[in-house]
Amino acid sequence: MSLTLRWNRLMSARRVAQISWSHKAVGEEFPLHDHDYPEVFWVSEGVMRHTVNGVTTELGRGRLVFIRPLDRHHFLGAGENGGTVCNFALRRDLLAAARRRYFARHRGAWWHDAAMPLGVQLSGAELRALDQAARELASLRTLTIADVDRFLLNLFHLLREREAPERQATEPAWLAAARRELSDPQKLAGGVNQLVRLAGCSPEHLARMVRRVHGVTPTDLVNAQRLDWAAVELQFSSRAIADISLAAGFESLSHFYHLFRRQHGVTPRQFRLRARALT
Question: Could you tell me which residue ranges the HTH araC/xylS-type domain spans (predicted)?
Answer without folding.
Answer: 192-274
